[in-house]
Automatic annotation (TrEMBL):
It is found in: Cell membrane. It comes from the Bacteria. Residues 82-294 form the ABC transporter domain. PANTHER family: ATP-BINDING CASSETTE SUB-FAMILY B (PTHR24221), ATP-BINDING CASSETTE SUB-FAMILY B MEMBER 6 (PTHR24221:SF654). It holds the Pfam family ABC_tran. It is a multi-pass membrane protein. It comes from Companilactobacillus suantsaicola. One of its GO terms (cellular component) is plasma membrane. This is ABC transporter ATP-binding protein. GO terms for molecular function: ATP binding; ATP hydrolysis activity; ATPase-coupled lipid transmembrane transporter activity. Keywords: ATP-binding, Membrane, Nucleotide-binding, Transmembrane, Transmembrane helix.
Length: 294
């Protein structure tokens, strides 16, 4: 017997009995109302207990992941300069289904890596694993040979997704997120992101409209890249970041990023043109059985 059925039975059965007793004169109307009020108060408390119990059970997997995060992570700080990222034989399951397994690759400082694969193969999941937002079923992901925490991931990785995160504020604040900075520091980030035309005092004071309607899609994408560079994110993770842009704009963004010798790039995408693929140091193909170098 389900809890929902039991709760419904306890709710409506007393009402039926109370109506019968009231009609037959065994209860006054006032007594019936008082009993129903008390019954509802008790049942509502019981319902809250059942709801809380269901919530606890439904979050069991999440709580286990949090517990595992503290167990599995080496709390020794990584060095400030990220020299290499090693992914060693990781596998990931979701609701009992294997998404991919035995995925291994390594990235050295300054390298540019492209990971392709069909839609649904787990490319975005791989990005979340690198960020420690998800934990692999098995295997290791190491920075400078050491495990790392979620907050360390966010201080080392910059993220560029399909939809740029832009605020209705000045260009300066969209780059700095309110952090104190000199104009020169903002200009440098804009220049590195290929936004040289905005590297002046009047341009960085301009307010970006809601949803960025007064900037092009390519400019908004570069603003997000400039933000990552301003915060000195040493590895840029690009999750189909140019998929919504026209080919010429996408090519310009790729050329500015992939020719920067100081920037480490890991991009997941399945429709990069062949002429752009030549700019990557390594190109991989992800599938359920692992990852192959092309």
């Amino acid at each position: 017997m389900s809890l929902v059925f039991l709760f419904s039975l306890c709710t409506y059965l007393p009402i039926g009995i109370g109506i019968y007793f009231t009609i037959t004169g065994k209860l006054t109307l006032a007594q019936f109302v008082a009993i129903q009020y008390s019954s509802s108060w008790i049942l509502n408390g019981f319902n809250q207990i059942v709801t809380s119990w269901n919530t606890i059970n439904s979050t069991k997997d999440i709580r286990q992941q949090v517990a595992n995060l503290h167990i599995q992570v080496d709390h020794t700080d990584t060095t400030s300069v990220v020299r290499d990222l090693d992914v060693e034989q990781i596998s990931f399951d979701f609701k009992g289904k294997t998404i991919f397994q035995n995925v291994s690759f390594d990235v050295k400082r300054g390298q540019k890596i492209l990971i392709g694969g069909k839609s649904g193969v787990g490319k975005s999941t791989l990005i979340r694993l690198l960020l420690k937002e998800l934990l692999p079923k098995q295997g290791k992901i190491l920075l400078n040979g050491k495990n790392y925490l979620l907050n360390q991931a966010y201080s080392s990785f910059g993220i560029v997704g399909q939809t740029p995160i832009i605020f209705e504020d000045t260009l300066r604040n969209n780059v700095t997120l309110g952090k104190s900075a000199t104009d020169a520091e903002v200009f440098r980030a804009l220049d590195l992101a290929g936004l040289n035309e905005f590297s002046n005092e009047s341009a960085i004071k301009q307010v970006i409209d809601e949803n960025g309607h007064n900037y092009s899609g390519g400019q908004l994408k570069r603003i997000e890249i400039a933000r990552a560079l301003f915060y000195n994110r040493q590895i840029l993770l690009i999750d189909e970041g140019t998929a919504s842009l026209d080919p010429q704009t996408a090519k310009g963004i790729h050329q500015s990023l992939l020719t920067n010798p100081d920037l480490t790039v890991i991009e997941v995408d399945h429709h990069i043109p062949d002429d752009i693929k030549k700019l990557y140091d390594q190109v991989y193909q992800l599938n359920a059985e692992g990852m192959q170098m092309l």
